[in-house]
Amino acid sequence: MPLLMLKDLPRYECLLEAAREFPDLNPSATEVFLNLLRTGDEAFRVVEAHLAKHDITQGRFGVLMALWAKGGPTANGTGTLSPAVLADHTGVTRATITGLVDTLERDGFVSRSPDPEDRRMLSVGLTARGEKLLSRILPPHFRQMAWLMEPLSEGERKTLVRLLTKVLQRAAEVVPAAPAESAVLAGTR
Q1: Which domains does the chain possess?
Q2: 6-12 contacts at long range (C-beta below 8 A, 24 or more positions apart)
Q3: Is the pTM here over 0.85, yes or no?
Q4: Does residue 116 contact residue 78 with C-beta atoms inside 8 Å?
Q5: Residues 108-157 pLDDT 10s
């Protein structure tokens, strides 16, 4: 779902005019902010269309990717995460993660099992079918990301990540970001 809900952004001249009526409106900052949201919406739309071809939502894909990042069945002996950790990694509530895992389990992409260390807890792991789905989704997904970023040089990409990290840090001053979100933009994942 788009965040901006505007297909056509206002021209800079319109922002200058609006700043006369609203002195707190900084035309340059507003122009950058609107372009950031619009670009994010378009990138999200591209990814969403790709995932729809595989009959999977962004939320379900996020859960699969969190488990894949954990390393599948070979990582630290288990390759599983608790629903609470999955919720933290994907930035959703525990109630939402329950629904996502329910659907993924129903479709055979993940399995739940008692946690080996605390049988009151559950662990969620990728199944072979989930790994197979990711092996089909990820190559074209990664090619699409590279294609979207192709107009930027390597230096521009590094600059963009640095600039986006600054904006992310400022946003966290108002509403703290989930650790996984800030790690992704900072390039630490």
Answers
A1: 1-53 (no CATH), 57-127 (1.10.10.10)
A2: 6/34, 6/38, 9/34, 9/35, 9/38, 10/34
A3: no
A4: yes
A5: 999 999 877 777 888 999 999 999 999 999 999 999 999 999 999 999 99
